[in-house]
């Protein structure tokens, strides 16, 4: 259980490797204060995968960047707590965070072509990542380690490949190289920000499999950030659904995918076409557009797009819902709908559309 | 019953008899020359190789495959943005493979294209009204009731506020911009729309809005579609027939049921098994395609 | 690489030949004869004919051109009002004004231009690029604003304004610096530098402004690249990220522009040379045009073209060395 400053009932696993409590990330701009992340609490144990789902502007990528301490402190206001292996990095000095980055926490990005430096050989880039955290290692040792890692992530002829430039790799191979670079220091936490979005579906399957195999081997914690619910259901143990910079629903992958409770999660599930079920049925889209983070709707941020807003009096428009238990242990929800209403609506409106069927 | 038989017999009012395909593609091929070797010997990239299919009136044909499979090149050849190397494209019984001048312009009225990126395909300096009216003006068409009225009808059709006639693209969200692109494509009342990844740049919740809109247009206006996409679930939802492409060739074509329930080509099977299934939790078994590591 | 070089060299020589022909034709399209200019106002037609004959201007254009080309490769003999002179290859002709082979004019004036441009380049590549990069790293700070403000100011200043003011303040009023002059570096390096200081500062500062803004924009763009984020995510220190990852990528287009600029400037910096009364290539060329001194015009035009074409080839090859994605062919 958490301290009383966190919203009621939100639990943080005290043994978890990563513990994030009431994280807020704000960017002051000329147009106003951007509340990119506005109070999010979660934790990930080693060997476990947390999926963070959301659309553009949901705050999912900003959350991951702040775990690496990558935001410019001069232009960002961060509050709350990010505890990595027992160390809170919020407010830590840049030099200290540097020692964690790439060693305890590593990250892979969406587009491996732009994420790798075009002028340096792949092996050199991986060796550099190793050498930063192993200053005593010789150049040759670092290079040997880089080739080993390329081999480990399934790149054939790693010796030759290490001497090539990123543009000489295919998309899938590049993402493998990115993963090799992220894992070169055996990080305890790996953040994957849309790692397969830019890849073809067959390559995506290989990369996801690789990540799972490596997780088993290295016993690392993984945060998988994606908009693809299929990817989430394949790799995640727990899921955090974000909207407008705040968590709206969180729970185990079973709870979120099979028994979703929040109208936004319903919307996501109902609007995604599926490979099964009635192809002739219309999808049920979420009306409207994602909100601006400068000017969030008052009350529940989702209320302009929620077809059930107002069901429970005026609450949706006046009061921001906090995360509360959705019934089952570990399943949390920020919604004004009553439990009976949610069950009735889910049974009547949602269960037959899109992938939710 | 007799009425139906009569109208079928005197079917002169129909431009295309129902049995005839609207679009017929035979052996379509596109080779790009690349220079290779020390002496600059000519070599070719076989972007599209011997692709054949047809699209019936009111039908939506899906073209799926991974990057570099030639689906986009095929689409561009259909709307004659690219010249084919060989093969034949027949539209309404007329060979349009090398149509030029006036014929090409008339053809452009009947076959329209929607692009993937709703941001770069609209001129940021033109108002929405101007963008949607452009195809009318270019073709010198004055619709009954005037251009403005027609444009406002089109905006209404695609679910945009007709009052937003004078706004600029940047004032709209991604999904709305894609609607503007659709309104522009509809301006000339085309018979066939080639949609190249029309929803892949959009947020998940917005994709469904646009897919539903396209489905409604197909039903209401009797449009035919060639729907190009990499997302197999989206294609399944939108298309009655699907062609699967791999390395420039069409490896399988069939009805939705045939492709999704009983895929016969190993590549189709591999492709389908690679899609993460939302309804199944945990790792799914997949069929590995040959030459696995790419 | 080899294929590329051969191709580019062929193209370059074609360009140079084309430029020489066009210059020749333009020169003869001018409704005035060099003989008039040389002979002065009250010149009898007989005298003009005599001068024209000695200049070879009575010959057909094609003959004059082939003579010129022959001079470059094998040398030629020149008849200067009865005096026969041997002009050895590479002979760019004979200047009847200064009574010397053109090659002498060039070898005298080129070192001056090279000295001016070289020094100025050191200034704008260090001061300009350095300031721009620093401003990008400190984007939005007072330093950034001052640097950008100053660069806008200098960029909108003309060489003759800045040069004139500097001359007035540093030379004429205070006497802090000697009047700009040229002493070969081999004779007295210190005197060479002090004589060149003003042109260096003038040309250097004005170009620094342009290079500062360019480098700042380039660096800001690069700092937002994904690979810079990756470098930071590895745990590299900001210094290493900026130098090894950002700077390396940001500098590439600047190298290109600097190379092309160098090629253009070596052909003569007319205004700078004129403001400080230094007889570099640019000033000789400008003078030759007013004098209708064809041999000098031809030589300076060809020299300028040669520098530009050569620098372009070098820049392209350099680009392939810096950026592994660029393949020449």
TrEMBL record, chain A:
The terms under GO molecular function for this entry are: ATP binding
What membrane topology does the UniProt entry give? Answer: Peripheral membrane protein
Q: Cite the Pfam families for this sequence.
A: ABC_tran, oligo_HPY
**Subcellular locations according to the entry:** Cell membrane
Q: Enumerate the spans annotated as ABC transporter domain.
A: 18-269
Q: Which UniProt keywords apply?
A: ATP-binding, Cell membrane, Membrane, Nucleotide-binding, Transport
UniProt-listed InterPro entries: AAA+_ATPase, ABC_Ni/Peptide_Import, ABC_transporter-like_ATP-bd, ABC_transporter-like_CS, Oligopep_ABC_C, P-loop_NTPase
Q: What is its main location?
A: membrane
Q: Which SUPFAM superfamilies match?
A: P-loop containing nucleoside triphosphate hydrolases (SSF52540)
Q: Keyword Nuclease: yes or no?
A: no
Fetch the NCBIfam families from UniProt: oligo_HPY
Per the record, the similarity remark reads:
Belongs to the ABC transporter superfamily.
The name of this protein is Dipeptide/oligopeptide/nickel ABC transporter ATP-binding protein
Originating species: Actinoplanes couchii
Automatic annotation (TrEMBL), chain B:
InterPro entries in alphabetical order: AAA+_ATPase, ABC_transp_ATP-bind, ABC_transporter-like_ATP-bd, ABC_transporter-like_CS, Oligopep_ABC_C, P-loop_NTPase
Pfam name, any one: ABC_tran
Q: Which Gene3D superfamilies did the record assign?
A: P-loop containing nucleotide triphosphate hydrolases (3.40.50.300)
Q: Does the keyword Transport apply?
A: yes
Q: Which residues form the ABC transporter domain?
A: 23-272
Q: Does the keyword Cytoplasm apply?
A: no
Keyword annotations for this protein, in alphabetical order, are: ATP-binding, Nucleotide-binding, Transport
Kindly give the CDD domains that the UniProt entry links to this protein.
Answer: ABC_NikE_OppD_transporters (cd03257)
**Where would one find coiled-coil regions in this protein?**
none
The record's comment on protein family reads:
Belongs to the ABC transporter superfamily.
Q: What is this protein called?
A: ABC transporter domain-containing protein
Organism, scientific name: Actinoplanes couchii
TrEMBL record, chain C:
* Coiled-coil residues: none
Compartments (UniProt record): Cell membrane
InterPro entries, per this entry?
BPD_transp_1_N (IPR045621), MetI-like (IPR000515), MetI-like_sf (IPR035906)
Q: How does it sit in the membrane?
A: Multi-pass membrane protein
Q: Which Pfam families match?
A: BPD_transp_1, BPD_transp_1_N
Q: Does the keyword Ubl conjugation apply?
A: no
Key words of the record: Cell membrane, Membrane, Transmembrane, Transmembrane helix, Transport
What top-level branch of life does the organism fall under? Bacteria
ABC transmembrane type-1 domain segment(s): 110-319
Spans traversing the lipid bilayer: 112-134, 146-172, 192-212, 251-276, 296-322
**The keyword Transmembrane appears for this protein:** yes
What family does the entry list?
Belongs to the binding-protein-dependent transport system permease family.
What name is this protein filed under?
ABC transporter permease
Taxonomic source organism: Actinoplanes couchii
